[in-house]
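I am going through a labmate's work and have reached the protein record below. What it holds is a sequence and that sequence's fold in token form. Please read both lines and tell me whether the tokens look consistent with the sequence. Do not assume that whoever made the record got everything right. Thanks in advance; the entry in question is below.
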Amino acid sequence: MRNFTPSEILRIVLITLALFCLAGCMAETEGVNTPGPKTYTYKTVGDCSIEADVYLPADRSKPLPGIVYLHSGALILNSRKEIIPEQLVQYLEAGYVVIAIDYRLAPETKLPDIISDLEDAFRWIYEQGPELFGVDPNRVGVVGRSAGSYLTLMTGICIEPKPKVLVSFYGYGDLVGDWYTKPDPYYCTMPRVSREETGIRSDGPEVTSRGSKNEQAGKFYLYCRQNGLWPLEVGGRDPVKERGFFLPYCPLYNISKDYPPTMLLHGDQDEDVPYEQSVMMAKELARSNVENELVTIPGGGHGFDEDMDKPVVREAFTRALTFLNKHLKK
């Protein structure tokens, strides 16, 4: 195998992760002009302000059903700006207020505090959202992509009152499986990356945003997957020796009969998050008699929904929107 240049390594990793930002949510992309949001700070930790962008539909008759959007990025990179413009437009045209939130990123912030940010964001939405932007706290759903979908699935066990509906694009419910705790065969075909090469320090200042083309963060994720160290770096604990620490943070092992209705969309050729992660979630949801749908994208890889021009992607997104409407527009 030939030696790759650093720029080629980064390009491979970023394509695989499907973490290309679409120029921010205020950009015009493929003729889609997305409206600008109003930004709020929902939480402050020391010098770190944690923000949310709120997008309002044209019809602002109150109260409004809401969608909380949780961005991708392995809990390591990206920000609330990552939302796909055409998808945002469709949510708004359907009459939803969209709340895209940031959360502190790993490895500087560990998993318990990331989940704490998630809980505080929903507390802010439920308590202040009705007055600030007219959201109906009784009609809030959650949509996420990849790591954002992991957080989406977590809201079904850590948020009270529970969201009314969850939509997970290529998410995962198990943090202690071999796929994350052992070296990944796919990422191991790429040139090895050392911890020192990443330039990422766990004791650095807390951050809520890293661009999807951030070379250090891309290398850090590659390092984690090549060595099976993502749970250790993000959770701060050894998933083999301290498996019990991670179990409360694994939606797969915490589904109950009152878990929200859930749609899982996943490509069966996903080389980053295994398709089986959504299959297992669907089985556990069914076991607990929780309404769920598993939408399989034949040949779909990670980030399949970035190409909204593909008929199969449009159909899948329409199904997701229909599922949201069913539970949020009663």
